[in-house]
Please model this.
Amino acid sequence: MSNPHKTLIHTALIYEARPLIQTLKLTQNTLLPKIYENDMYILVVSGIGKNNTTESLETLFKKQAFKRAVNIGIAGCKEEEIPIGTLFCTNQQLKTVPKATITCVTEPLDAKSSLSSLLVDMESDAFLEVCTKYLPQNECFVFKVVSDYCNSVIPKKSFVIDLIQKQIKTIKEFL
Model:
């Protein structure tokens, strides 16, 4: 299982992962059902939140080395002028993807007036905390697709799949 040339991909939800599983032709690991992989990638679906993210990533990093780590998911956005479906990188300045600030919360946020950053999610802090212990910071990427304007409505599964699918080509450049 150890291949230090693989890229680790993390999503919180299976619906965020589905377009990646299909596009990258990943197969489900029979022993570890939250893992999808091939010769180049290992994708883990951790579940929502800091604890799930930390536990999943620590377990993987203890088993093997990676060349890069990429978090892909949806995020709420404070500014309604920004179109739903817009892709941002929150931790690096990239030529093809705009950078945005993000706040990581423990509960869904529906009062955007209290938000000082542009985006909000529930996993990005834990992802970076774990991954930067094992990899250089420039090999860790957090990509977020705007899914809502900080309301408490949970996006439909098909909507999340569609949002991620539309950004796959751009995200693939960094895998």
